[in-house]
Every structure is written in C-alpha cells, then in structure tokens.
Design brief:
The protein is built from 13 helices and two strands. The protein is mainly alpha-helical.
C-alpha cells in the first residue's frame, strides 16, 4: 500500500507543481498587485481595497457587465440550440453524417483570431459579402458593425458560428452513451420521436447538458477575441463586454492594480456562475426524483 501511494504521488506531484507555478503563483501576485497602485508595472503605494471599490463603482465596468450578460445569454442559447440540433442530426455514423461533422468542425479548428477577421470582412460594408447578399432586398446600405444592435448580433453570430461544433462534440458524446435498448423498448410501446426525445434523451443527457452549459458560459463570459477583432467594442461601446473592458484597463491604460482587482472579481463571478448552474440542475433533478 505504501509503495502504491508513493507511485501515485510521483505521478501527481509534477502536475501539482505545474498547477502551482502557472495558476497559484500568478493568482497570488495578482492578489498582491490588486492591493497596490500599479501604473506601467511600477508598484507604488498600498491602497487596500480601494481598487476593488473603484471597479465596483465604475460606470464602464457596470455597463460592460450588463453587455456581457446580454451577450452570454443569447450566445449560450443559440450555440447550445444549434449544437444540440447538429448532435442529434449527425449522431449516426453514415457517410453523410461523417462528412457533415467534418464540415461543421471547420470553424472550430481555425483560430478565433482568423475566424473573427474572416467574419469582419464578410460583415464589412466596404467590399464585404453581406452587402452583396442584402442588395436584392434593398438593404445594401445596411451597416452591421456600425449599428449598436446589429453589432451585438454579429458578436453572437460569431460565437454561434465557431462554438456550435464544440457544443456538438460534447453533446454527441452524451448521445452515444444512451443505451439503444431504451429506444427499442419505447418503439415497441408505441412512443413516437418526440416522446422518446422528452422521456429518454433529455433525462439521460442531464450531465452532458450541464457540462456543455458550464463550459459555454465560462467561455462566453470571459471571451476577448470576438469583440477585440470583430467590433473593437463599438460602436459607442455597444459591444464592450467584460473581457474587452478588462483588457483595456490592464493593457491599454496600464492600470495594473485596478486591472488585477477587476480580474479577481471576474474570477469570483465565474465561480458563482458555476455554482448557480450546478444548483439549478440539482434542484431540477431533485424535483423530478
């Protein structure tokens, strides 16, 4: 038993050391800097919780928090819906389904930077493809990225276009684990496709759905590349979501003390979001037990 414990610790310790160096140490440094005034990497005086207070009372931060909630909700809704639909449609292993999976995975395999630049070109009013597509409808002058509502829609589309494949992979793995005998027994009992989906698929998919929702919420609530490349936070800060606001505070304004306080608050909000989602799923499961 002692020898087995030594082998187990020998396997785990290198990864714990890596986790400590690349997660715990930066987190500790960030916490220390958040209690000081830090401008351009120069640590000045100790300010205590003042940086946290400045973040909480900043109108720009509150506005970015509201925009992040709007973006995360709609991005999660459409990405999950399209990912689940694709997983159901492409679950089988026929030639058409395998080819479809390969096509759907293309946006997910290219980098977020390149994908966002591609969509920016498509949505561009000058030389983009979208004005050409809207021209027959008499909407050639419509500017997607220059209109606040349309710009948020473009941001949500960017998220759905790229991450539907990610949701599809997670949900398809759950679908593959559902025993086929359950569907066969339901067919014998005369259950139609909708009834089989509601009574068998959804209950058996609770854990994959939970994992997918948590993964997507964390991804969308902290995303930076989409707004940074596609909209730049505009127009009029209409897409200045929290990841971009954090980037601007730390790496454009170089207020690293406030930036670190901001990052730690976002970290706590992320943990709270995960706990809320898990609690909601458990409450739903307990009510059906």
């Amino acid at each position: 038993m002692f020898r087995q414990d030594k082998v187990a610790w020998g396997l785990v310790l290198p990864f714990l050391a890596i986790e400590f160096i690349f997660v715990a140490v930066p987190l500790g440094i960030g916490g220390w800097m958040s209690l000081h005034r830090v401008d351009f990497l120069v640590v000045k005086n100790f300010v205590g919780m003042q940086n946290y207070w400045d973040v909480i009372n900043s109108p720009a931060v509150l506005n970015s928090l509201l925009l992040t909630a709007v973006f995360t909700f709609f991005a999660l809704f459409f990405t999950f819906l399209s990912g689940f639909s694709l997983a159901l449609f492409l679950e089988r292993d026929g030639r058409l389904q395998v080819f479809g999976r390969a096509v759907v995975l293309v946006p997910f395999t290219i980098s977020m930077l390149i994908g966002s630049m591609l969509l920016k070109w498509i949505f561009s009013r000058e030389g983009g493809l979208m004005p050409l597509a809207l021209q027959p409808l008499g909407m050639a002058d419509t500017s997607i990225l220059a209109d606040p509502s349309n710009a948020m829609g473009a941001l949500v589309f960017n998220a759905m276009w790229r991450d539907s494949a990610h949701a599809m992979i997670l949900l398809m793995a759950g679908l593959k684990s559902v025993p086929l005998q359950l569907y066969d027994a339901a067919r014998v009992d005369g259950a139609g496709p909708v009834r089989r989906f509601v009574r068998i698929t959804l209950p058996m998919m609770r854990l994959p759905i939970l994992i997918t929702c948590v993964r997507l919420i964390l991804h969308f609530a902290n995303i930076l590349t989409f707004p940074l490349i596609l909209t730049g936070g505009g127009p009029n800060d209409a897409t200045n979501i929290i990841g971009l606001q954090l980037y601007r505070t730390g790496f454009q304004d170089f207020r690293l003390g406030i930036g670190n306080a901001f990052a730690l608050i976002v970290f706590v909000v992320n943990i709270a979001l995960i706990m809320v989602v898990i609690r909601l799923f458990r409450a739903k499961e307990e009510s059906q037990a």
